[in-house]
Design brief:
The protein has a domain of 134 residues. The radius of gyration is 16 Å and the shape is globular. The protein is mostly helical. The chain is built from 10 helices and 3 strands; from the N terminus they run αααααααββαααβ.
């Protein structure tokens, strides 16, 4: 498959892998939110970026999360860092090009390096999972402003940054700050009201 999937194709893929309607609603809604935020950031900060690739990458970036729901319908948070590489493998099996698969494996935190994996003893194959294109960076950054928590929430840049070093180690706050300076911050009040999600 060389061309990008349509929104209908992507929704069908989510429906294929979602173990329950509730899981579909949680993950697919999050992906739609991230796509909306990424498009706004793209249009305002880097209009030359490929809008269709950003859209497809954002809508697919969390497809691997479905494999981490337990029998009670809860995400297995202890394994959650693996959802990116799981998603990459799902898209590869489905025949998608590497440039699309990478949106899954390269959106966690603000990038995970093989040194991070060794130092933090993460349950990941040793590799660099770092967003390298502007499209990958937009999706990775937009993802930081919404969480699939219970209840789902929109996060301010300050809220996300506060937990970043604790979750992913020192040095990551500077990387997030650079993204913030490059892309700006998305407006969250409108999306929060439309989706009925809280702000944190």
């Amino acid at each position: 498959m060389s061309s990008l999937p349509t929104p209908d194709d992507i929704r069908a893929l989510h429906e294929k892998y979602a173990p329950t309607p509730e899981a579909f609603e949680l993950v697919y809604t999050h992906c739609r939110v991230v796509a909306e935020l990424a498009e706004r950031l793209r249009a305002e900060a880097v209009p030359e970026a490929d809008a269709e690739l950003v859209r497809a990458g954002a809508l697919l970036h969390d497809i691997g999360a479905y494999e981490l729901f337990d029998a009670d319908g809860r995400l297995r948070l202890g394994e959650y860092i693996r959802h990116g590489v799981i998603g990459h493998e799902i898209l590869r099996r489905e025949g998608f090009p590497e440039r699309l698969c990478r949106f899954c494996s390269c959106h966690i935190g603000v990038g995970i390096t093989r040194d991070d994996i060794r130092r933090q003893e993460q349950p990941l194959p040793e590799a660099d999972y770092v967003a390298s294109t502007v499209e990958e960076q937009l999706v990775m950054y937009a993802d930081k402003f919404h969480t699939k928590s219970d209840p789902p929430a929109f996060l301010s840049a300050e809220t996300y940054a506060a937990g970043l070093a604790r979750m992913f180690g020192p040095g990551k706050a500077a990387a997030f700050g650079a993204l913030r300076e490059r892309f700006g911050e998305p407006e969250l009040d409108g999306p929060a009201a439309r989706y009925g999600h809280v702000r944190r």
